[in-house]
Design brief:
- It is built from 5 helices and no strands.
- It is globular.
- With 85 residues, the chain is mainly alpha-helical.
Length: 85
């Protein structure tokens, strides 16, 4: 896993309780390993922001990003359009 960017680390610190941060960091770090997974830093920051401190949502958005990262980027810019869970 690559280190998270400064923007992703800021989102991590803002959204997740200290005890959840190692797991959230590991989950976010799973994005960017496949050749189709682009805009890694931006997507990781979006995943952490969209998850609102919930590891289950982080996993949910991670799976979506691994399929089509553009959805996650759109929802990060337009959170009111993100699917409700």
């Amino acid at each position: 896993m690559d280190r998270l960017s400064a923007a992703a680390e800021q989102a991590l610190a803002r959204e997740f309780a200290p005890e959840a941060q190692p797991t959230a960091r590991e989950l976010a770090g799973r994005y960017g390993v496949g050749p189709q997974e682009r805009e890694v830093d931006r997507v990781r920051a979006a995943l952490l922001s969209l998850s609102r401190g919930r590891l289950d949502l982080l996993g949910h958005y991670l799976a979506i990003a691994q399929h089509d990262y553009r959805d996650v980027l759109y929802w990060a810019d337009h959170p009111e359009q993100a699917p409700k869970r």
